Structure formats: structure tokens, C-alpha cells
Amino acid sequence: MAEKTAAEKLKEALLYQPKNGGATLSDDQLKAAFDFCEGYKAFMDRAKTEREAVEVLVRTLEGEGFSAYEPGRKYLPGDKLYYNNRGKALIGVVMGKKGLEEGVRMVASHIDSPRLDLKPRPLYEEAQLALFKTHYYGGIKKYQWTSIPLSLHGVIYKKDGSQVSVCVGEAEGDPVFCVTDLLPHLADAQRKRTLEEGIKGEELNILVGSLPFRDDKESELVKLNIMRLLHEKYGIVEADFISAELEAVPAYKSRDIGFDRSMLGAYGHDDRVCAYTSLMAALCCNEPEYTTITVFADKEETGSNSNTGMDTAFLRYFIADLAQPHGVEGRRVIARSKCLSADVNAGFDPTYPDVLEKNNAAYMGYGVALAKYTGSGGKYGTSDATAEFVSEVTRLLDEKEVKWQIGELGKVDQGGGGTVAVFLAALDMDVLDVGVPVLSMHAPFEIVSKIDVYMAYKAFCAFYGERDGDAV
């Protein structure tokens, strides 16, 4: 092999040159990444909503020795516990050897994804068809939600206070639902709308039936027949929809993408890909140096509000309650803590290159993506991590041989977006966004690289103090 030239040596020493993991990882490492994603695929197919995600997370944590949080208890190093917030958000904790006054190591993701929510009075009949009215949740391109199979998930509370769980459209043989669209032959006026208005919010109506109740003396017989079927199966009446939380999501299963099977397609990678990888990292912790806190929040896609979102008090109150038996103030714990805001980033798409600045874009297969800031315009709506903390994290990832890259959510004036980082930073802790690049983000079918998923897991393991992230 020819000796490297002076320019080659200098380039290697001085220039930042990220490389595709497919060209740099060993066969064993690639196999580990592919094997890891089999578990992730199973998780995604079982956890399509925030409620389902919490149910799966709790079962998994309990299976690994975690128990429900007991207020007032003084937890000791190695103790494992979880706090379930209303069945829609979750906190997992492994107590560390160092006291809470030294701070904690936190990874915070969110488990909600864009979807179609049913309105409080959703069921109606028109032209002898029964439909559900919806209100879309989060940032979507509305036209992407027409003419695809949808499943229905959620809970209904009946007048007697009993709960009914609903999941229709996922099991083999289940019916599915859909939002209809115009045939191209009659869509001349629709084509003249802007892309944003191509499908309007009030046109996202889900088709649910067409058979009338066999009695021609009443009106709305198709609606009546649907309610008859729902009453027979669930024991509900129409008024019970008012207290229900029902979500329509794509009925797709997770699938490998590409001849090489190097990528994964699924609904809800944003942000359950970071939820799963941080969960698996938490399961590797037995007696970490610092207490680890893994947060799975709700409502990020609509601004992190409500009592299960990150822009609320439940995390701050929980840390204060956890610290109180140790004689430590919660704010002291938070101020000494360090956090990775685990959320996805935009992957570079060669079909749409103009919206991303190539030197600061995240690429598929190049590893977990770090974002020093998100926001929009002049860095509005972001925490902007300090140089000290970015340096600390990148040095740690290099030390643990975790493939990483820097990422930015689009060109400066192109748009932008936010994560939970800004709310965590407001509590007075160091925060950096770390997550997986995604293609077709917020679409009903998103795409990630298996290498990047695995590297996110290894990054969270490294942050929690585990040796190499290969324990699972």
C-alpha cells in the first residue's frame, strides 16, 4: 500500500469527514444493528399511540425488575422504579451510586405522533354513508392521509365509568377505514388549490360504513346501524364518544426498506424511535454512577402542553418528590443534571436537496444526529446547547466509538421546528438534542436507517455510563 501523501495526512488530521456506517462498521456491528431493529419493529407494531406505548413500556420495565413509584420512599442505589402519568406519559428511574445532589443523567423523548383524532361527536351520515369527523393532531400534510388504510385505537369511558379499549384494523381479518379522495377526472377545481389546501381539515372524514339498519321508517339508518354494531361489541351509546379518546393511525406494519434491508419504514418513527432506543439503554443500567431518568412524554407534536406534556410540572414535581426523602431540594438536583433531548432530525433527501444545507445536514446511515439548536429563523424556540456540553457529549461518543454526525433542521430561512429541549433547559439543566435522522418525517410512513437506530441506542448507553451498549 502506497504511503499517504502529506495532503492526505493533513486532511485526515484536520478536516471533519463523517462517513457512512455501512462502509466503516464491521460485519458483526452491522449484524448487531440489524438484530437490534427486529425488537424495534415489534415495538412499533404494538405501540402506535401514546397510551399503547405506555402500556408496552410498563410491561417491559416490570419484566426487568422496575416497580411503580412509591411517594415518600427513600430509594437506594440500584433500585428501579417508574412513574406512570395518566397512562399517557412515563418516567423510568435507576438509582445511581452518587447522591441526587450530584444531579442525574436524563434522556427525554416523546411517544405521541401526528394522527387523526375523532371529534367529540364524530359519527354522522350523508348520502347513506357513515363517516367519522376528525381533527388532525400535529403537523401533517393533509393530502397524505387520504386513500390509505387506517386503524382505530383508543379508549371510551361509558356512563357508568367503565373503560372500553378499542383497537380495530391491526389484527389479521380486521376491517380498516379510510379517508376518501376525488377521482382525477373530477378534480380540476381541487388541483387549483394550493398544496396545503389540496385537502382541507374538514375533508378528513373517515368512511366507516354503508349498510342501513333494516327499517325504512326512520332517517339516518346507516348511522343507526353503525351505532347498533358498536353497542353490541362495546356496550356504548353515541354520547359515550364525548368522553372518548380515539385516534386513527395508519394500519401499516413496520417493514424493511431496500434490497439491502438497511432501512425501516413505519408509522411514528418520530419519536418512538428515540423512545425505544432510550428504553433499551435504561434496561442496561444496574447500578450506574449517576441516577438515570428516562422520560417518555406526550403532546410534543402539539406544543408539549397539557398535564402529560413536557411544558408542564409533572417532571419537576416528580424529581422534587424523589429527592425529598434524601433531604435534597429538587431544584438542586435539576441544576446539576445533564440531559439528552432524544428527538429525530431531518435526514438529507436527494430528491429534495434545496431545503437542507449540505454541510450541516444529517445523512442516512452516518450515525446518530446531534443538533446544537433547533427552532426557526433567528434560533427562535430553541435552547441552543452550550459549547461546553456539546464538547462533553461528542468526546464521550468518540471515546465509546459511537458513530455520530451534526444535523440542522433545514436552511436558516427555510422553516424549522422544535423539540422538548427548550422546556428542559428552562428548568436549568444542560440539554442537547440527539436523535435519529428521518426521511418523510410526519408522513404516515416514515423511514430511518437501521445503523442510525442502533447508534442512538449506543449513544444513550454511553451517556448513562454503560460500557459499550452491546448488552441487548
| Estimated radius of gyration | 24 Å
Q: Which CATH C-level class of the largest domain is it?
A: Alpha Beta
Q: Assign the structural class, choosing from mainly alpha, mainly beta, alpha/beta, alpha+beta, or little secondary structure.
A: alpha/beta
Strand order of the largest sheet: 1-2-3-14-4-15-21-17-19
**Number of contiguous helices:** 12
Unreliable runs: none
CATH H-level homologous superfamily name of the largest domain? Zn peptidases
Mean model confidence by pLDDT: 94
Largest sheet: 9 strands, mixed
CATH topology of the largest domain: Aminopeptidase
| Shape verdict | globular
Q: Provide the β-strand percentage band.
A: 15-25%
According to DSSP, the number of beta strands is: 23
Taken together, the total number of domains comes to 2
* Helix content, binned percent: 25-40%
Give the N-terminus to C-terminus distance in angstroms: 38 Å
Question: What is the CATH architecture annotation of the largest domain?
Answer: 3-Layer(aba) Sandwich
List the helices and strands and how they pair.
Elements: H1 6-14, H2 21-24, H3 27-46, H4 50-63, E1 67-68, E2 80-85, E3 89-94, E4 104-110, E5 115-126, E6 129-137, E7 150-157, E8 163-168, E9 178-179, H5 188-191, E10 206-209, H6 221-234, E11 245-250, E12 255-257, E13 263-266, H7 269-283, E14 291-297, H8 314-323, H9 330-335, E15 338-342, E16 345-346, E17 368-371, E18 375-376, H10 387-399, E19 404-406, E20 416-417, H11 421-425, E21 430-435, E22 437-438, E23 446-449, H12 450-464
Parallel strand pairs: 1-2, 4-14, 4-15, 15-21, 16-22, 17-19
Antiparallel strand pairs: 2-3, 3-14, 5-6, 5-11, 6-10, 7-8, 7-11, 9-10, 12-13, 13-23, 17-21, 18-20
Helix pairs in contact: 3-12, 7-12
